[in-house]
Amino acid sequence: MTPHLQPRTTALSRRSFLVTLGGAGIAVAFASAPALLLAPEVAQAAAGGLVPNAWVTIAPDGTISLVSPAAEMGQGVKTALPLLIAEDMDADWSKVRVVQAPSDAERYGNPGFYGIQLTGGSETVRGYYQLLRLAGAQTRKVLLAIAAAQLGVPVGELTTEPGRVVHAGSGRALSYGEIAATGSLPDPLPQATEADLKPASQWRYIGRHDVDRVDVPSKVNGTAQFGIDVDLPDMLHGVVLRPPVPGERPERIDDAAAKAVKGVTRIVTLAYGVGIIGESTDAVRRAREALVVSWSNSSRVRTYDSASLAQAYREVGRDLAQPGVPARAEGIAPAAIAGATRVIVADYLTDLVHHATLEPMNATALVTGDTVEVWAPTQGPTATQRFAAEAAGTSPDKVKVHTTLIGGGFGRRAEDDFITDAVLLAKEVEGQPVKVVWSREDDVRHGKYRPLAAQHVEVGVDGAGNIVGWRHRVVADSIFARTMPEMFKGDGGLDTVVTDGTTFNYRVPAHLVEYIRQDSGRDVGFWRAVGYGQNNFGVECMIDEVAAARGVDPVALRLELLNGQPRAQKVIEAVAAMADWKRPREDRALGLAYTDAFGGHCAEVAEVSLDRESGEIRLHEVWCVVDPGVAIQPRNIEAQVAGAILFGISHALYEQINIVAGEVQETNFDTYRLLRMSEMPRIHVEVTPTPENKPAGIGEVGLPPIGPAIANAVARLTGGVRLRHYPFLPERVKAALAG
Question: Domain count of the chain?
Answer without folding.
Answer: 3
